[in-house]
Amino acid sequence: MTRKNVLMCFILLLAVCDFVNAQDIPADLYKASTLPDSLKQDANSVVRYAMEEYVVKGPGRAVNKMHTVTTILNEKDDNEAVIQVPYDKKFNSISRIEMIAYDADGKLIKKYKRSDMYDGAATDGISIVTDNRFLAARHTITSYPVTIEITVEVNMNSYLDLGAWYIQKPDQAVQNSVCKVTAPSTVGFRYLNKNTKVQPVKTNADGNEVYTWSVKNLKAIKPEEDVPAWKVSQRIFFNTNNFEFDGRPGDISSWQNYGKWYQTLNADVNSLSPQRAEEIRQMTANLKTDKEKAKFLYEYLQQNMRYVSIQLGIGGLKPFPAMFVDQKKYGDCKALSNYMGALLKAVNIPSYYAIIYGGENGEPAEPSFPSDPFNHIVLCVPFKGDTTWLECTSNTQPFGKLGNFTENRNALLITENGGVLVNTPKSKAEDNQFKSEVHVKLSADGSAKAEVKIMGTGEYRSDYIGVTAMKTDDQKEFFQRVMNIKQPSAFEFKATDDKDGTKELNIELEYDKLYDIASGNKQFYRPRIFDIWRYTCPVLEKRRSDYYFSIPMQKVCNTVIDLPEGFEVETLPANQSLKFTYGNYDVTYSYDAAKNQVNSVTKFNLNSHIIPAAKYTEMQQYMDAIAKAQNKKLVIKRKA
Amino acid sequence: MKKIFFSCCLSAITFIVHAQTVPLPQPFGKVDMADLQLKSCDFEPDANAEILFDKAEVHYELNSDVQIIENRHKRLKIFNEAGKSYANVRIEYFHTQHFEEVLDLKAQTINLTNGKTEITKLDKKSIYVEQIDKFRSAIVFAFPNVQPGSVVEYQYKWKTLSLSNFPTWYFQDLIPVRYSQLTTSIPDNLDFKRQSRNRQPYVINTTVKKNETLEGTNTFTFNVITETKALEKVHSLPNEPYMSSLYDNLKSISFTLSGISELGSKYEIGTWKKIVKYLSANNNFGAQLNKKLPDEQLIIAKANQQKNQDERIAYLFNHIKTAMKSNALDYWDTNDGVVKAWEKKTGNATEINMMLFHLLKQVNIPAYPMLVSTRKHGKVNPYNPVLNQFNRTVVYIPVDSSKCYVLDASNKFNLYNEIPDNTLNSFGFYYDTDKEDHDLVFIQNEQPVRQACFVNAEIKPDGKMVGTAQLSSFGYNKINRTTKYKTDGENKFIEYLKGKDNSLTITSVKFENTDTDTLPLVQNVNFSLDLTNSDDKYLYFKVNALTSLEENPFVKENRFTDIDYGYRDNYTISGMYKIPAGYKPESLPQNASLTMPDGSMSFKRIVSLSDDNIIIRFTIDHLKTIYFKEDYPEFREFNKKMYEMLNEPIALKKS
């Protein structure tokens, strides 16, 4: 997952700029009083001046320079008074770093030099060890507004992607911002606009191409929730056709050529020893088809290997040798995918190492702009007419299922002929099914027993497997809270199965009193044990961006309620049939007088997990209607 | 060159202990078949991994340098896939000038393969050293060949070039520990204060005294006291709502050097009295207490114009609170010093509170500097006179036996007349800078902190409720809500009041008394609520909307730590609901009351009907601030019933 945190850190954390001497910046920009009101509106801070520069010295070698002056208006943007610059032991070094704080009048309060900064090992929360480090300092703001000037210079001696210019952060206005790239015409510099139309001025000087982008007086934009940042973030991606990483020259002018570089990188680590290869062949000798063999070996991998992330030096890009994984029984995404490829190679099944961006609703790579926006590796097995994808870091994923961590985007396959950009499968509602059967037995005193059976596939299955790693007490709390189960007096899990991609949960509940209200000869019930859908979204005047759920899904719940002897239905909740463009909710209730049972069937389908902005209000009203429908009560009464 | 001679064992003491029932630690590489075949932890069957044993032996080596050496051996069992992450090990230490070192690390995985023991040793090349920062490093490794069922073990020697850097021992972990044993050998001329956080009986608790002679230019003789303490079957410690702090609850024993007796003379730093002397003379404490602040005359003059002592305290507290901003660092002493902090308008909490102390003294208020430990930092043991128990200095002003001020001006939402809640239920240590008198006080707030909600609403026949609510938040409730309102803004505050309920619309909120410290924060809310569960026969409504009392935090069946609310509370909810014409109550909820068997918590519901109005009143009263984990079954049942009643709807029937 953390194939090259170093670069990602640069892209995500740092807007990199230029050193223009402070004298070149008008003194007014250090004063809060000169800020136009239009830029203060909705802003927690304003970039007064930003100069970001990339000076490409040659393939894989560049200098990033950043010089910014930012006025912070309130405590919500206190982080603008934090400088944190990543570097690492081998590929990126910081040659200059400084932060200066000024008061509202532009008078210097404090200067932070390199020696004042904390030098720490960076952790990504996943890896046990990496080469990544950072320098950091924080200025404590005593009164607002305050202006922070930051100057940073980073030398890169290896890169795959040059980087990107992030034009504007949420809740932040920009008064003046410039980005400049200087690159020798021989390296093949190019750029790509994302969510912006800003165009550069291009000049030539001394064999270099010089591109300059600039923006002025951008008002602050309030961010929206539940949309991935990449859908809205205004950026310009940079790259050079020729690159170098750890002394290995490469060509990324096409996906094909980039793939060739990767192929060479991995060539000496992707085979098992002849002896182990023979053992693997024997293990699968009795299996008939290649698909059966692949499935067997994938399950062998899942049962024997574990995910451990270690990212040191070129090890951030190049996998551990297949034999290392074979012996130590661990590896990261690339080591495990490479190992899986080696297992398949041993039984003559071709497969492709596939470079991808991992993360829910992650950004696909831009086909027209070969680059490396990736952070994860999976394996692709090109069975004829049946391309099979393997997520090699998971011990539980069914054979051939990727899940929402890598679906709906593209991956770069490293084939014998170089790189090929292909699409991963699209998420389908039928892949994420939740089916449940509930049987409630009511007693005349209002006490009740309920048996709940849930069968989950896809992401539901994954979630439930994740939950089973929790303590039993935590699992019970989890289901009560997430599914809105009324607190029972006894809660039992029964043995659960995980078969053929379906995880089954069996829950037994007991209640001293299940009704909401008892009144004379009547009892009022919520006519179910849990809510099939709980989400509602805020009312908005206008939604600007598409709305993203994690997954599309199909949910169904059959509930049987045995009424207590001597009781009958007084009021049955009304049937409901609700629809919106991307799904539907239906509930039907029926009373079987002979069995004295209330039967209900509830269905919820979300056919697409991406809802266009224009349909937001329709969705919001639909979900409110579901909440309302779920609130209806079942009333039973003692027979006369 | 010095040499140590061991002479005969003089005495041995064994304390009363519980009989040990689990296997004792074994040497490296020797593993019982039963442990390899173990399928789950017998006293915590849902654990993904278990520490079979964790064993350390700590002693002094008195060669050319004084060193403390710890020999550690830890063995774990991995039960399943989810437990494999416990086979990744990280050992952190302070590397600066070899202050600490980790040496001779050995590790191996032991599997049962086809009925045979298979050992996979950790490759030296797979041991990584991460330099965390200027001071700290970590040794990191992943065990090879780990499968569900694996036993993994490692041992190493930890060394420190220090007389006093004695390692704290944790008997407990985030996974269960079957057996944990610490052996310490300490020369008796080093006086260590031991702080034990453990209520579980030891299975081994022995003390052995040995005579030793150190030969050098001068030969001298001393005793070495060897103590062994062991616990077995230590349950993992979960993170629980309202637990005081992880540090208070993890079963542990820590050692603080408090005195050294040398050649007959006794040099002692380990009494509160000595601590006062130490603090008074300390550049970062005593010397900072009376630092004159530039421009202080103006502030003092203004304070002197206030009517009485209470107002003078309020004035100075609010002045410092507004003028200074905390840098969020917590130490019992100063960092930059008071004057520098004043110039920069920012400092640590201690610096800020020392300014306040100084100004209070200038207007003749009998104030004292008081060292405290914040809730997260753990509770103070009054019998353990060591400074590292504290992490902040505040100002203490006793008034009489029932009233005092504890002032912490480093949080801008604190009130001068409320003891900061993060210092409650622990000890504070204060001293009189004039007389060098000192004392420890238990900081508590016995007054219930009130929250009241008064709703006046009309139910319309079309299934809508329209009304007003007056929410009054006192004391800490006021502090919490003011913090939320001022930090997040009005829109977010409305969202907080609403929950995520789209059927509730808050049309306006007006705040009163946000800046008057002595009055409650009043939130006047106009709202309308769609009674979405209504149908053509019935209207239903709930009376806990806007109260934030919907979800019971105590649904877990087991509890491993005490519930520490910090302070008492008292919540009143009163509602008057006008019934629409053509409807009448199907039935009214019954009057009810709940009390804990020991009377420490009570809940009442009173419901009545008057003309067309349903009048309902809830009161919740906590009479204690701490509820023991032993009483959790009753506590949980109380909460379950209470939340059921709070969530109980009222039905109105169309007539």
Automatic annotation (TrEMBL), chain A:
<dbReference type="Pfam" id="PF01841">
    <property type="entry name" value="Transglut_core"/>
</dbReference>
<dbReference type="InterPro" id="IPR038765">
    <property type="entry name" value="Papain-like_cys_pep_sf"/>
</dbReference>
<protein>
    <recommendedName>
        <fullName>DUF3857 domain-containing protein</fullName>
    </recommendedName>
</protein>
<dbReference type="Pfam" id="PF12969">
    <property type="entry name" value="DUF3857"/>
</dbReference>
<keyword id="KW-0732">Signal</keyword>
<dbReference type="InterPro" id="IPR024618">
    <property type="entry name" value="DUF3857"/>
</dbReference>
<feature type="signal peptide">
    <location>
        <begin position="1"/>
        <end position="22"/>
    </location>
</feature>
<dbReference type="InterPro" id="IPR002931">
    <property type="entry name" value="Transglutaminase-like"/>
</dbReference>
<feature type="domain" description="DUF3857">
    <location>
        <begin position="60"/>
        <end position="222"/>
    </location>
</feature>
<feature type="domain" description="Transglutaminase-like">
    <location>
        <begin position="281"/>
        <end position="370"/>
    </location>
</feature>
